[in-house]
């Protein structure tokens, strides 16, 4: 499921990027917008892919008891929250 969300996220950001690029041109302001969109997309995709990798591959191979999976998923779920919360800071920085 998280892979589909990531793919949809990439598609949506790419469509927004293409629409903005076509309508706005190559001004310095639009370059900043493109940089911020790319940075937001990378943080969100990396956060979700890391969590999906841990859940689908790392936890089954690490031989942790199933009772501990919740804690490990919660720890790596922090990356998703950081990616979601960082949008404001990325937009402000760029």
Automatic annotation (TrEMBL):
Tree of life domain: Eukaryota
Pfam families named in the record: 7TM_GPCR_Srsx
Segments crossing the lipid bilayer: 6-21, 33-50, 70-92
Keywords: Membrane, Transmembrane, Transmembrane helix
Record keyword Transmembrane helix present: yes
PANTHER family linked to this entry: G-PROTEIN COUPLED RECEPTORS FAMILY 1 PROFILE DOMAIN-CONTAINING PROTEIN, G-PROTEIN COUPLED RECEPTORS FAMILY 1 PROFILE DOMAIN-CONTAINING PROTEIN-RELATED
Protein's UniProt name: GtrA domain-containing protein
């Amino acid at each position: 499921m998280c892979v589909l969300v990531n793919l949809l996220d990439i598609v949506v950001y790419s469509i927004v990027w293409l629409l903005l690029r076509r309508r706005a041109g190559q001004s310095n302001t639009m370059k900043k917008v493109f940089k911020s969109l790319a940075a937001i997309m990378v943080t969100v995709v990396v956060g979700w892919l890391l969590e999906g990798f841990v859940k689908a591959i790392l936890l089954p191979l690490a031989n942790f008891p199933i009772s501990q999976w919740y804690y490990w998923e919660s720890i790596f779920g922090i990356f998703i929250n950081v990616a979601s919360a960082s949008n404001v800071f990325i937009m402000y920085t760029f």
